[in-house]
Design a protein that fits this description.
Order of helices and strands: HHHH
Distance between the termini: 60 Å
Structural class: mainly alpha
Number of domains: 2
Shape: rod-shaped
Number of helices: 4
Radius of gyration: 23 Å
């Protein structure tokens, strides 16, 4: 098991565009160990896929549109502002 310093070193090499084989040779570990350490110490953050154009953020149809489309079009015929 690699320590915190080794994990930081791995991420430093990744940020410098080293390939996995280069990192493994430099740190004297096997590529499979490197892969396991990276996958064990990552966190994936998901973001909202639906994207609104700024001028449509007050549209009353947004909740309904989120179910069917991924992005508001540039010209939306359904746009109605909340009263």
């Amino acid at each position: 098991m690699l320590g915190y310093d080794e994990i930081l070193t791995i991420y430093k090499y990744i940020s410098l565009n080293y390939h996995a084989s280069q990192i493994a040779v430099t740190m004297h570990i096997s590529p499979s160990t490197l892969y396991r350490m990276i996958t064990a110490n990552i966190e994936i953050k998901k973001r909202n896929i639906f994207s609104l154009a700024y001028h449509y953020h007050e549209c009353k149809y947004v909740p309904e549109c989120k179910k069917t489309i991924k992005r508001c079009p540039d010209e939306c015929e359904r746009f109605e502002k909340y009263l």
